[in-house]
Amino acid sequence: MLKLEHLAWSIPGGESIIKDIDLELGEGKLVVVTGPNGGGKTSLAKLIAGVETLSGGRIIFDGEDITDMDVTQRAKKGLAYAFQQPVRFKGLTVRDMLELAAGKSLNEGELCALMGKVGLCASEYIDRELNASLSGGEIKRIEIASVLARKAKLSIFDEPEAGIDLWSFARLVETFEELRAKSTGTLLVISHQERILSIADEIVVIADGKVRQHGPRQEILPQLLANEHAVRCPLEKESAIV
Ligand SMILES: Nc1ncnc2c1ncn2[C@@H]1O[C@H](COP(=O)(O)OP(=O)(O)OP(=O)(O)O)[C@@H](O)[C@H]1O
Protein backbone atom coordinates (compact mmCIF):
# COMPACT_ATOMS: atom_id res chain seq x y z
CA MET A 1 0.00 0.00 0.00
CA LEU A 2 3.00 2.30 0.57
CA LYS A 3 6.16 1.93 -1.42
CA LEU A 4 9.18 4.17 -0.90
CA GLU A 5 11.75 4.02 -3.65
CA HIS A 6 15.25 5.46 -3.16
CA LEU A 7 14.00 8.30 -0.93
CA ALA A 8 16.54 11.03 -0.32
CA TRP A 9 16.29 14.33 1.51
CA SER A 10 18.90 16.98 2.21
CA ILE A 11 18.43 20.12 4.25
CA PRO A 12 18.84 23.42 2.38
CA GLY A 13 22.45 23.77 3.65
CA GLY A 14 23.25 20.53 1.86
CA GLU A 15 23.52 17.96 4.68
CA SER A 16 22.03 14.64 3.68
CA ILE A 17 19.44 13.45 6.24
CA ILE A 18 17.56 10.66 4.43
CA LYS A 19 19.80 8.44 2.34
CA ASP A 20 18.35 6.14 -0.27
CA ILE A 21 15.48 4.60 1.71
CA ASP A 22 13.60 1.72 0.10
CA LEU A 23 10.63 0.42 2.06
CA GLU A 24 7.37 -1.35 1.37
CA LEU A 25 4.49 -1.46 3.87
CA GLY A 26 1.62 -3.92 3.61
CA GLU A 27 -2.11 -3.19 3.91
CA GLY A 28 -3.68 -3.24 7.39
CA LYS A 29 -0.36 -3.61 9.19
CA LEU A 30 0.86 -1.92 12.35
CA VAL A 31 4.41 -0.88 11.50
CA VAL A 32 6.59 0.66 14.20
CA VAL A 33 9.58 2.76 13.16
CA THR A 34 12.28 3.08 15.77
CA GLY A 35 15.96 3.95 16.05
CA PRO A 36 18.35 6.38 17.74
CA ASN A 37 17.57 10.08 18.22
CA GLY A 38 18.36 12.11 15.14
CA GLY A 39 18.32 9.02 12.91
CA GLY A 40 15.75 10.45 10.50
CA LYS A 41 12.38 9.00 11.61
CA THR A 42 10.48 12.29 11.81
CA SER A 43 12.07 13.48 8.57
CA LEU A 44 10.88 10.30 6.87
CA ALA A 45 7.33 10.75 8.25
CA LYS A 46 7.26 14.36 7.02
CA LEU A 47 8.41 13.28 3.57
CA ILE A 48 5.65 10.65 3.39
CA ALA A 49 3.02 13.16 4.54
CA GLY A 50 4.31 15.82 2.13
CA VAL A 51 5.33 18.30 4.84
CA GLU A 52 8.87 18.26 3.43
CA THR A 53 9.82 17.92 -0.23
CA LEU A 54 11.98 15.03 -1.40
CA SER A 55 15.41 15.63 -2.88
CA GLY A 56 15.14 12.33 -4.74
CA GLY A 57 13.13 9.13 -5.08
CA ARG A 58 9.46 8.24 -5.43
CA ILE A 59 6.49 7.54 -3.14
CA ILE A 60 3.82 5.16 -4.37
CA PHE A 61 0.62 5.10 -2.31
CA ASP A 62 -2.13 2.64 -3.16
CA GLY A 63 -0.56 2.08 -6.56
CA GLU A 64 -0.41 5.80 -7.38
CA ASP A 65 2.70 7.98 -7.60
CA ILE A 66 2.10 10.77 -5.03
CA THR A 67 5.64 12.18 -5.14
CA ASP A 68 4.57 15.51 -6.63
CA MET A 69 1.40 15.91 -4.53
CA ASP A 70 1.27 18.45 -1.69
CA VAL A 71 0.08 17.75 1.87
CA THR A 72 -3.57 18.48 1.11
CA GLN A 73 -3.67 16.30 -1.98
CA ARG A 74 -2.03 13.45 -0.04
CA ALA A 75 -4.52 13.91 2.81
CA LYS A 76 -7.37 13.62 0.31
CA LYS A 77 -5.86 10.38 -0.95
CA GLY A 78 -6.12 8.95 2.58
CA LEU A 79 -2.92 9.86 4.37
CA ALA A 80 -3.09 11.30 7.92
CA TYR A 81 -0.18 12.52 10.03
CA ALA A 82 -0.02 13.33 13.76
CA PHE A 83 2.97 15.56 14.45
CA GLN A 84 5.56 14.89 17.15
CA GLN A 85 4.83 18.41 18.38
CA PRO A 86 1.21 19.23 17.59
CA VAL A 87 0.13 22.55 16.16
CA ARG A 88 -2.34 24.74 18.10
CA PHE A 89 -5.15 26.46 16.23
CA LYS A 90 -6.50 29.55 17.97
CA GLY A 91 -10.21 30.09 17.39
CA LEU A 92 -10.89 26.42 16.64
CA THR A 93 -12.52 24.24 19.29
CA VAL A 94 -11.78 20.59 19.92
CA ARG A 95 -15.19 19.71 18.46
CA ASP A 96 -14.40 21.77 15.30
CA MET A 97 -11.10 19.97 14.86
CA LEU A 98 -12.58 16.49 15.29
CA GLU A 99 -15.50 17.25 12.97
CA LEU A 100 -13.17 18.70 10.33
CA ALA A 101 -11.06 15.55 10.58
CA ALA A 102 -14.09 13.25 10.38
CA GLY A 103 -15.54 15.28 7.50
CA LYS A 104 -18.99 15.39 9.16
CA SER A 105 -20.70 16.61 12.31
CA LEU A 106 -20.35 14.25 15.24
CA ASN A 107 -22.89 13.58 17.99
CA GLU A 108 -21.98 13.47 21.67
CA GLY A 109 -21.65 9.68 21.62
CA GLU A 110 -19.25 9.74 18.68
CA LEU A 111 -17.18 12.54 20.25
CA CYS A 112 -17.08 10.64 23.52
CA ALA A 113 -15.95 7.43 21.79
CA LEU A 114 -13.18 9.26 19.92
CA MET A 115 -11.85 11.13 22.93
CA GLY A 116 -12.10 7.97 25.04
CA LYS A 117 -9.64 6.27 22.68
CA VAL A 118 -6.95 8.67 23.91
CA GLY A 119 -8.08 8.66 27.53
CA LEU A 120 -9.93 12.00 27.54
CA CYS A 121 -13.50 12.73 28.60
CA ALA A 122 -15.26 14.54 25.75
CA SER A 123 -17.61 16.65 27.89
CA GLU A 124 -14.65 18.38 29.56
CA TYR A 125 -12.92 19.27 26.31
CA ILE A 126 -15.11 19.55 23.23
CA ASP A 127 -15.91 23.24 23.64
CA ARG A 128 -12.38 24.27 24.55
CA GLU A 129 -10.26 26.23 22.14
CA LEU A 130 -7.09 24.62 20.74
CA ASN A 131 -4.89 27.27 22.29
CA ALA A 132 -2.17 27.53 24.90
CA SER A 133 -4.63 26.78 27.73
CA LEU A 134 -4.42 23.07 26.85
CA SER A 135 -1.47 21.20 28.32
CA GLY A 136 1.12 19.56 26.07
CA GLY A 137 -0.25 16.08 26.83
CA GLU A 138 -3.86 17.19 26.24
CA ILE A 139 -3.15 18.77 22.86
CA LYS A 140 -1.08 15.76 21.84
CA ARG A 141 -3.95 13.38 22.66
CA ILE A 142 -6.52 15.59 20.92
CA GLU A 143 -4.37 15.59 17.80
CA ILE A 144 -4.11 11.80 17.93
CA ALA A 145 -7.92 11.64 18.30
CA SER A 146 -8.28 13.85 15.21
CA VAL A 147 -6.10 11.47 13.19
CA LEU A 148 -8.22 8.55 14.43
CA ALA A 149 -11.34 10.48 13.35
CA ARG A 150 -9.98 10.65 9.81
CA LYS A 151 -10.12 6.83 9.45
CA ALA A 152 -7.37 7.23 6.87
CA LYS A 153 -5.90 4.45 4.75
CA LEU A 154 -2.50 5.28 6.24
CA SER A 155 -2.22 6.98 9.64
CA ILE A 156 1.20 8.15 10.81
CA PHE A 157 1.81 8.86 14.51
CA ASP A 158 5.09 10.48 15.51
CA GLU A 159 6.03 9.48 19.06
CA PRO A 160 2.46 9.29 20.36
CA GLU A 161 3.84 8.45 23.80
CA ALA A 162 5.62 11.82 24.16
CA GLY A 163 4.26 13.78 27.10
CA ILE A 164 1.39 11.37 27.72
CA ASP A 165 0.74 9.94 31.19
CA LEU A 166 0.90 6.20 31.89
CA TRP A 167 -2.88 5.68 32.00
CA SER A 168 -3.58 7.48 28.75
CA PHE A 169 -0.63 5.70 27.17
CA ALA A 170 -2.07 2.31 28.16
CA ARG A 171 -5.42 3.34 26.61
CA LEU A 172 -3.65 4.47 23.45
CA VAL A 173 -1.84 1.14 23.11
CA GLU A 174 -5.23 -0.61 23.39
CA THR A 175 -6.58 1.70 20.69
CA PHE A 176 -3.73 0.78 18.33
CA GLU A 177 -4.40 -2.90 19.01
CA GLU A 178 -8.14 -2.45 18.33
CA LEU A 179 -7.42 -0.63 15.07
CA ARG A 180 -5.00 -3.32 13.98
CA ALA A 181 -7.54 -6.02 14.81
CA LYS A 182 -10.14 -4.27 12.65
CA SER A 183 -7.59 -3.93 9.81
CA THR A 184 -9.23 -0.69 8.76
CA GLY A 185 -6.00 0.91 7.60
CA THR A 186 -2.25 0.80 7.91
CA LEU A 187 -0.69 2.38 11.01
CA LEU A 188 2.83 3.74 10.93
CA VAL A 189 3.92 4.58 14.46
CA ILE A 190 7.27 6.18 15.29
CA SER A 191 8.14 5.11 18.80
CA HIS A 192 10.89 4.30 21.26
CA GLN A 193 8.51 2.46 23.59
CA GLU A 194 8.91 -1.28 24.08
CA ARG A 195 5.15 -1.52 24.82
CA ILE A 196 4.39 -0.18 21.32
CA LEU A 197 7.16 -2.22 19.69
CA SER A 198 5.67 -5.31 21.32
CA ILE A 199 2.36 -4.94 19.44
CA ALA A 200 3.90 -4.25 16.01
CA ASP A 201 3.40 -6.52 13.03
CA GLU A 202 6.63 -5.18 11.54
CA ILE A 203 9.50 -3.12 12.92
CA VAL A 204 11.69 -0.78 10.91
CA VAL A 205 14.93 0.49 12.44
CA ILE A 206 16.26 3.74 11.02
CA ALA A 207 19.66 5.17 11.87
CA ASP A 208 21.80 7.75 10.11
CA GLY A 209 19.09 8.25 7.47
CA LYS A 210 19.04 4.60 6.37
CA VAL A 211 16.92 1.52 7.03
CA ARG A 212 19.12 -0.69 9.21
CA GLN A 213 16.60 -3.46 9.89
CA HIS A 214 13.09 -4.28 8.71
CA GLY A 215 11.12 -7.39 9.41
CA PRO A 216 8.45 -9.07 11.53
CA ARG A 217 8.40 -8.10 15.21
CA GLN A 218 9.21 -11.67 16.25
CA GLU A 219 12.50 -11.36 14.37
CA ILE A 220 13.53 -7.75 15.04
CA LEU A 221 12.43 -7.06 18.64
CA PRO A 222 14.61 -9.75 20.28
CA GLN A 223 17.61 -8.34 18.38
CA LEU A 224 16.83 -4.81 19.57
CA LEU A 225 16.46 -5.93 23.16
CA ALA A 226 19.69 -7.94 22.96
CA ASN A 227 21.53 -4.89 21.60
CA GLU A 228 20.09 -2.74 24.37
CA HIS A 229 21.58 -5.11 26.94
CA ALA A 230 24.86 -5.24 25.04
CA VAL A 231 25.11 -1.47 25.39
CA ARG A 232 23.95 -1.38 28.98
CA CYS A 233 26.04 -4.21 30.45
CA PRO A 234 29.53 -2.67 30.18
CA LEU A 235 28.24 0.50 31.83
CA GLU A 236 26.65 -1.51 34.61
CA LYS A 237 29.93 -3.36 35.11
CA GLU A 238 31.82 -0.06 35.26
CA SER A 239 29.44 1.40 37.84
CA ALA A 240 29.77 -1.81 39.89
CA ILE A 241 33.56 -1.30 39.97
CA VAL A 242 33.18 2.33 41.09
N1 LIG B 1 14.88 21.39 8.96
C1 LIG B 1 16.02 20.90 9.43
N2 LIG B 1 17.15 21.62 9.44
C2 LIG B 1 18.32 21.13 9.91
N3 LIG B 1 18.46 19.89 10.38
C3 LIG B 1 17.36 19.11 10.40
C4 LIG B 1 16.10 19.57 9.93
N4 LIG B 1 15.20 18.55 10.08
C5 LIG B 1 15.89 17.54 10.62
N5 LIG B 1 17.18 17.87 10.82
C6 LIG B 1 18.24 17.00 11.36
O1 LIG B 1 18.08 15.74 10.75
C7 LIG B 1 18.41 14.70 11.65
C8 LIG B 1 17.22 13.74 11.74
O2 LIG B 1 16.17 14.38 12.46
P1 LIG B 1 14.79 13.66 12.76
O3 LIG B 1 13.94 14.61 13.51
O4 LIG B 1 14.26 13.11 11.50
O5 LIG B 1 15.29 12.47 13.70
P2 LIG B 1 14.46 11.42 14.54
O6 LIG B 1 14.98 10.07 14.19
O7 LIG B 1 13.00 11.65 14.38
O8 LIG B 1 14.91 11.80 16.02
P3 LIG B 1 14.16 11.71 17.44
O9 LIG B 1 14.14 10.25 17.83
O10 LIG B 1 15.07 12.49 18.34
O11 LIG B 1 12.80 12.34 17.32
C9 LIG B 1 18.76 15.37 12.97
O12 LIG B 1 20.15 15.47 13.06
C10 LIG B 1 18.12 16.74 12.85
O13 LIG B 1 18.81 17.68 13.61
From TrEMBL:
<dbReference type="InterPro" id="IPR027417">
    <property type="entry name" value="P-loop_NTPase"/>
</dbReference>
<dbReference type="GO" id="GO:0005524">
    <property type="term" value="F:ATP binding"/>
</dbReference>
<keyword id="KW-0547">Nucleotide-binding</keyword>
<keyword id="KW-0067">ATP-binding</keyword>
<keyword id="KW-0813">Transport</keyword>
<protein>
    <submittedName>
        <fullName>ATP-binding cassette domain-containing protein</fullName>
    </submittedName>
</protein>
<dbReference type="InterPro" id="IPR017871">
    <property type="entry name" value="ABC_transporter-like_CS"/>
</dbReference>
<feature type="domain" description="ABC transporter">
    <location>
        <begin position="2"/>
        <end position="233"/>
    </location>
</feature>
<dbReference type="InterPro" id="IPR051120">
    <property type="entry name" value="ABC_AA/LPS_Transport"/>
</dbReference>
<dbReference type="InterPro" id="IPR003593">
    <property type="entry name" value="AAA+_ATPase"/>
</dbReference>
<dbReference type="Pfam" id="PF00005">
    <property type="entry name" value="ABC_tran"/>
</dbReference>
<dbReference type="InterPro" id="IPR003439">
    <property type="entry name" value="ABC_transporter-like_ATP-bd"/>
</dbReference>
